[in-house]
Specification:
The complex is a heterodimer of chains A (324) and B (324).
Chain A (H helix, E strand, L loop, with lengths): L8 E11 L4 E12 L4 E5 L6 H9 L7 E10 L2 E2 L5 H7 L4 E4 L3 H4 L6 H12 L4 H14 L16 H13 L5 E5 L7 H18 L2 E6 L2 H7 L2 E6 L2 E7 H6 L4 H8 L40 H4 L5 E4 L2 E3 L2 H4 L1
Parallel strand pairs in A: 3-8, 3-9, 6-7, 7-8
Antiparallel strand pairs in A: 1-2, 1-4, 4-5, 9-10, 10-12, 11-12
Chain B lengths: L1 H27 L5 H6 L5 H11 L5 H15 L12 H36 L4 H15 L2 H15 L12 H30 L2 H9 L3 H29 L3 H6 L5 H10 L3 H29 L1 H22 L1
Classes of the chains: A alpha/beta (324), B mainly alpha (324).
């Protein structure tokens, strides 16, 4: 993992901090991963683990007043996105990398016709006339399964699932190479979830995009991801292929996540949730961040930060207990 | 939409009726006899009785009220001044252009200066520009209109001698009153604009816009501002509606023969028809302005428009079903 320039997208040692009046929230603490062309990487973790901050940092849309990337590199085909000017980033956002948001209810501008919200993205990145942009926007609408005659309607006239389809249409309007999907199905009904997820996967294939799938739903991971990174308190604690992770979950936290899943085959009655709460990101525990909740902790875990160690080829884990 | 407007116009009738009854009743039972005001305390009782009979003030209260309402609603006649014998309606119509000119241009200036100030403040939250515009706003809120007016007269009329201090004539006579009147408006617009912009620029759809690659100015003007306008329109509309009934202080300071000055003279001389006429006129203009404000909401926000037309739409759908 030393020379990352040949990777398609690589994130190296990324730190994101949010500053409020007198506290600093450490949202992302030294995250590194790579994403290859056509692959899907899943970022799995609890709410508040820093998954969304990673995606927003890649796209450069962290709220500029409070948040900042304090350290790290984000290389897209060897070019560091963090060093690009705002003007250069504008060309990348929505064109080469785009994002689907968690809550479709609030992600669309309520006073703008849905069609023009798609056409806006088209016009920003392609030298086309208004009419051509509209034509493209209509195509996108139909592609996500919305009839063209709803072009002039407003978001409040759409259901949640329909809105998420519009958000997807906006994200894909310029054939991006990387799609950052931030819990795209969390806010939807279960039946709609399956539809939307299936659509994302199909579109991803037909556009041959890379995808960063942010989720807390292991079911989604099983369905769409090639590689998985488990994020805890702003750190990747385990990284590996989907098979590695599902067959040999190694980090105590990953095991905890699987333990919290109901198993239909074995009628186990009670679930085994991870005890305790995620740590306070303004005041992270020393050493291993998972220490206070860990069932296999030793005194050593508190002493220093634990590095990622390869426990099997391509399967990395941040835990002493699994390190050897 | 037209149905909605007609409905609202019809609603104005009970509002104006209520205002007329209230103001007439209150003034009727207010201490102070207009007959004595006209003839003086040392006039003979016979002369007073004669005048009272000729003015119709000797009739019982309900009869007087009904005849007043009849005049107002059936003949649009607001009565005649006790002192001058001139028609109140004519006098109001004669004075209205001055008041309208003053109110409209002050509103325009407050909007044109106040909204940009608010936007600048919100976009640069807690930075120098925010502090500067909020300082201006604070000045505007805390300085009473008459005092601003007097200061302006001192500087521009007495010291510099470039503008007339008071009265009416060419357009230059309006400059100082408009500035004095707009000052408070600018301040409230800026504060309202800032707070609603702050709310909107943190919303998800602004992030969506940024993720599309819309530039910072683009997100502010195309996405945030239209959503932030509703509270601003409310403030602008309310203050405009109120000042159409006469900006009493400014008209007095600058001796402008507007409706506010007219009402003050009516109050001082116990000239009840003038006071009643001005209040009823204010009720009418205020209702009309509020209707316009509501229509503007619908223009700005499609969700509100949907509420206005929903009644007729449902009916249409029902009829369509019947047709089948």
């Amino acid at each position: 993992m030393t020379d990352n320039s040949q990777h398609f997208l690589s994130v190296e040692d990324l730190y994101v901090e949010y500053e409020t009046e007198n506290t600093v929230v450490h949202a992302v603490n030294g995250v590194s991963f790579t994403l290859e062309k056509g692959h899907t990487l899943g970022l799995v973790g609890e709410t508040g683990a820093g998954k969304t901050s990673i995606a927003k940092a890649i796209l450069g849309i962290l709220p500029d007043l409070q948040a900042r990337v304090s350290c790290g590199r984000i290389l897209l085909e060897g070019r560091d996105l963090l060093k690009l000017s705002e003007k250069e980033m504008l060309k990348i956002r929505g064109d080469r990398i785009s994002m689907i948001f968690q809550d479709p209810m609030t992600a669309l501008n309520p006073v703008m016709q849905v069609g023009s919200q798609i056409a806006e993205a088209v016009r920003l990145h392609n030298p086309v006339s208004r009419r051509e942009a509209k034509k493209k926007a209509v195509e996108m609408l139909e592609m996500v399964g919305i009839p063209a005659d709803r072009y002039h309607e407003y978001p409040h006239q759409f259901s949640g699932g329909m809105k998420q389809r519009v958000v997807i249409a906006i994200a894909l309007a310029c054939n991006p190479q990387i799609l950052l999907a931030d819990e795209p199905t969390t806010a939807l009904d279960v039946t709609i979830q399956a539809q939307v997820l299936e659509m994302i996967v199909e579109l991803k294939k037909s556009y041959s995009m890379s995808m960063l799938m942010i989720t807390h739903d292991l079911g989604v991971v099983a369905e769409v991801c090639d590689e998985v990174a488990v994020v805890y308190a702003g750190e990747i604690v385990e990284y590996g292929s989907r098979e590695d992770l599902f067959d040999h979950p190694s980090h105590p936290y990953t095991k905890g996540l699987f333990g919290a899943l109901p198993d239909v085959d074995r009628d186990s009655g009670r679930l085994n949730p991870v005890p305790g709460l995620p740590p306070d990101p303004t005041n992270l525990p020393e050493g291993c961040h998972f220490y206070p909740r860990c069932s296999r902790r030793t005194d050593r875990c508190r002493e220093s930060k634990i590095e990622m160690a390869e426990i099997a080829p391509g399967h990395l884990c941040r835990c002493f207990a699994e390190g050897k | 939409m037209i149905r909605y407007i007609i409905k609202r116009l019809l609603w104005m009738i009970p509002v104006i009726l209520g205002v007329s009854v209230l103001i007439f009743t209150i003034l009727h039972f207010t201490p102070g006899d207009p007959v004595i005001m006209i003839l003086g305390r040392d006039s003979t009782v016979e002369a007073q009785a004669q005048l009272r009979a000729s003015m119709g003030l000797d009739r019982p209260f309900p009869v007087q009220l009904l005849s007043y309402l009849k005049d107002v609603f059936l003949h649009f006649d607001l009565g005649v001044s006790y002192n001058t014998g001139k028609s109140v309606s004519e006098e109001i119509l004669f004075r209205f252009p001055y008041t309208f000119m003053l109110a409209f241009s002050s509103m325009l200036i407050s909007v044109l200066i106040g909204i940009p100030l608010g936007v600048i403040a919100a976009v640069n939250q807690n930075k120098l520009w925010d502090r500067i515009s909020m300082f201006i706003a604070l000045l505007g809120v805390s300085m009473p209109q008459f005092w601003v007016g007097l200061l302006l007269v001192l500087l521009f009329a007495l010291r510099l001698g470039i503008l007339p201090p008071s009265g009416i004539g060419g357009p230059q006579y309006f400059i100082l009153p408009i500035i004095a009147n707009a000052f408070g408006g600018i301040a409230s617009m800026a504060r309202q604009g800032r707070s609603s912009m702050l709310e909107v620029i943190r919303s998800d759809y602004v992030t969506t816009a940024r993720a599309k690659g819309v530039s910072k100015t683009g997100t502010i003007f195309r996405h945030a501002l239209p959503n932030a306008l509703i509270p601003v329109i409310t403030v602008a509309g309310t203050s405009f509606g109120r000042s159409l009934g006469g900006t009493i202080v400014i008209e007095s300071v600058f001796s402008i023969p507007g409706i506010g000055a007219y009402m003050i003279s009516g109050i001082n001389n116990r000239d009840y028809p003038i006071v009643q006429g001005c209040v009823v006129f204010l009720a009418v203009t205020f209702s009309i302005i509020m209707l316009l404000v509501d229509l503007m909401y619908a223009f700005v926000d499609p969700r509100i428009k949907a509420q206005y037309v929903s009644g007729s739409r449902k009916r249409r759908v029902k009829n369509e079903k019947k047709d089948r």
